[in-house]
Amino acid sequence: MNLIAHPSRVAGRASVPASKSHTIRAAFFAALADGESVVEAPLASADADAALGAVRAFGAEVEAAPEAWRVKGLAGRPRACEIDTANSGTTMRLACGVAALGGGATRLTGDAQVQKRPVGPLLDALTFLGARAQSLEKNGCPPALVAGPLAGGRAELACPTSQFLTSLLIACPLATGDSEILVTELNERPYVEMTLRWLDALGIRYERDADLTRLRVPGGQSYPAFTRRVPADWSSATFFLAAAAVTGGEVELTGLDLDDAQGDKAVLDYLEAMGATVERSSEAIRLRGGALACAHLDLNATPDALPAMAVAAAFAEGETQLANVPQARLKETDRIAVMAAELGKLGVACEELPDGLVVRGRGAGGVAGGRVAGHGDHRVVMALAVAGLAAREAVSVEDAEAMAVTFPDFVERMAALGARLERA
């Protein structure tokens, strides 16, 4: 499917979909809990469906309705099974840790994109903690085979993606012994803080140092059943915010929590630094666009924001550097290379760096229309559609069906704000 974005101005009030990161964590915590948990207002998307498929495969009973999921947990005892996580890298990494709690071997695979995404450091760490874990193709990527029991111990872990550490933090409280995790590299720290807040809410004991280089997790613990509402997704909000910024519009977004651990709330700071006007309150977030200027932005904590921020930079005056985000090359696509290539088709000069992207902005009205590829990456598709709203002529984005991974009603929600988008 192609998504055609026509020049148009975005303005109005909108609610934001539920957080993908919280929804997937909720599914796994509920599956491991003792008793029935209720996950209120979960995200409806392909990634969320992948997480539900995984916990069902592990043996959890799930009653899924749009307004809530009811999950009868496994009391920390998942069964051996086969799991296909489709396009969900988060589900893949978290399911590897859960599989290590079972007695038998679980085989985990995903689609072609997921089979290119690394899990090697996580599998090695699980092995050091007593499980048996291996990449079946011996390339450090899925498909993987993981078997427990997880005994505990000491493991070093490099985290080019925070999902490796989150996976261990979910599994290690249920290990038979204590675990010590020494973190030698950590990107996307806010997502680890999100996981730790879940552990706090569920009464799990752990020790950590301030910079998250050492964590100690006592084993033999258990997860209680819970009822929790999923907060709105700052990553999805990024596209509304960027659209208002580049079209000179004004949006008011509801449901967002400024106190949540999600890293992408920093997009407010990024766009504000580039010249957008931002008002923050507990009731709503308001952003008004206008003339944008270049900036130097450290995106280490917010790799999912890179596609949208690259588009915002394309409409700014001057050279914007999106820096310190090497893990953006390890997402559904190499987002650094992909955004450089696709913005180039719209007349925007970009320079790839090993860990980032330099975008030589053309200012308002300086970006051409044309045909671009979405590369099957939901965030790339939506970012390029935003570019079409402020370009001189329409932008047609291929592979637009990828939006369903996290934001299946993106077109409808954007259209309600005045965006001229059509599926073709």
Q: Care to give the gist of this entry?
A:
With about 425 residues, the chain is α/β, with parallel strands linked by helices.
Q: Can you offer a commentary on this structure?
A:
This protein is of the alpha/beta class and 424 residues long. The protein has 2 domains: 3-17 and 233-423, Enolpyruvate transferase domain (UDP-n-acetylglucosamine1-carboxyvinyl-transferase, Chain); 20-217, Enolpyruvate transferase domain (UDP-n-acetylglucosamine1-carboxyvinyl-transferase, Chain), CATH 3.65.10. It is 30% helix and 26% strand. It contains 12 helices and 24 strands. The chain has helices at residues 20-32, 46-57, 89-99, 120-128, 163-171, 189-201, 234-247, 267-273, 306-314, 335-345, 378-390, 410-415, and strands at residues 3-6, 11-15, 36-40, 61-65, 68-72, 82-84, 105-109, 132-135, 144-147, 153-159, 179-186, 207-208, 214-217, 227-229, 250-254, 277-280, 285-288, 296-298, 317-323, 349-353, 356-362, 370-373, 395-398, 420-423. Helix 7 runs parallel beside helix 9. The radius of gyration is 21 Å and the shape is globular.
Features:
about 425 residues, alpha/beta, UDP-n-acetylglucosamine1-carboxyvinyl-transferase, Chain, 2 domains, 4-stranded mixed beta sheet, 12 helices, globular
Sheet with most strands: strand arrangement? 22-23-1-24
Helix content: 25-40%
Distance between the termini: 6 Å
Structural class computed from helices and strand pairing: alpha/beta
Q: Looking at this structure, what is the CATH superfamily of the largest domain?
A: Enolpyruvate transferase domain
Which architecture of the largest domain does the CATH hierarchy give at level 2? Alpha-beta prism
Provide the CATH top-level class of the largest domain.
Alpha Beta
Describe the sheet with the most strands.
Answer: 4 strands, mixed
The rough form would be described as: globular
Mean pLDDT: 97
**Quaternary class:** single chain
Count of individual domains:
2
Number of helices: 12
Q: What is the strand tally?
A: 24
